[in-house]
Amino acid sequence: MIKQILGRLPKKPSKSSENREFGGPSVAPSSTSSASKSTSDFQSNRPGTLNNSSPPGPDSAPHLGYSHGMKPAQVVNPKLNGSSVPAPYEALPGFRDVPNSEKQNLFIRKLNLCCVVFDFTDPTKNLKEKDIKRQTLLELVDYVTSANGKFTETVMQEVIKMVSVNLFRPLTPHPRENKLSEAFDLEEEEPMMDPAWQHLQIVYEFFLRFVASPETDAKLAKRYVDHAFVLKLLDLFDSEDPREREYLKTILHRIYGKFMVHRPFIRKAINNIFFRFIFETEKHNGIAELLEVLGSIINGFALPLKEEHKLFLVRALIPLHKPRCLPMYHQQLSYSITQFVEKDCKLTDTVIRGLLKYWPITNSSKEVMFLSELEEVLEATQPAEFQRCMVPLFRQVAHCLSSSHFQVINHKISSPTLRTFRFLHEINFYIWKHASRTFCLFLS
User: Fold this and answer.
1) Can you tell me whether residue 42 is helix, strand or coil?
2) In sequence order, what are the residues at sequence separation of 6 or more whose Cβ sits closer than 8 angstroms to the Cβ of residue 80?
3) In total, how many domains does the chain have?
4) Is the dihedral of CA 34, 40, 41, 42 positive or negative?
5) Is the entire prediction scored with pTM above 0.85?
6) How many other CB atoms are found less than 10 A from the CB of residue 397?
């Protein structure tokens, strides 16, 4: 009787059956292992990591920088600011060790390998990896130089990506507290050399040869060498390293020559840099290099000059005589302005009156520079244009003759224009000369 009653009671489920029904602790180890596996998969797909396997399929999209819904997520540049190097970071085989059909894929893999930026503030860190990247960059330079086929759009995209990751960085200004921005102060200081130059130089050389290569199609490359890229390139002109500015000058000149569609934008962007320098900061390290590029550009202007070019002369080039650090770029500025006068002699009056407007009053060294530039402008001046600015010009020359600075008073304007018209204006010249000296004696 008791056994029959007990047999009717419900039995208590076992622990194993409970875990199978409700998903208990026995499932936890498998989920943990899968999480660790996905983490390791993400690490293996980090930018800059070598991966010799075939391209991942759609299931691996979350590990390639995509979020839910297959929308692109923000990708961070793989810069190593003191962090550990992505493993493994090993050298790839050389181009000679692979067949021609695989060279383009190898080229792209080498570009991706060079997207890792190392920290050069500690010279003892990542020595092996830095050497691997340097050797890889040299191989890329040789490959671009000897290329015998048009670069594809994929290659161009990877090239611009590698160049951008390495070059576009925040520039660290050299501390100059409590110092005037005079030219002699800046010349006495040693320029700050970038410690990463051993890599940067090869990247610049690689990009220079890529732009200059006949295998680079300008119509296709302009999609990636766009306005945003050009603006970032122009920002680098403020670098304190003169070696970097020299490369930038050459590259900008090649871009201007190859990408005709970007020419108006480049001129406008340089114009804005000059405006900011003249009227706001008066601090920029690359004004001389930008003016050197402009000198070559102005030399290629077609005649008659466009109104845009004349406005650039009046609004940007002539006001560049105003900053105190004029000696740092005066030679390039004088050449650019002389190019305008040689292109159109009618601009002589505009240039000379502009020089007289910004003529220094208390800075004798700048006054000597103005006199030298005035002589070069007068070399290209025609008689009719000379007569328009004759009176204010002689007035300023007479004022210089009464200067207390020996270099100013002894500076001789031996321009053929002045020699040609001296017999016409000799009387006026000496009138201004003696009048100014008499006035100075009267004041003393």
Assistant:
1) helix
2) 116, 117, 118, 119, 126
3) 1
4) positive
5) no
6) 18
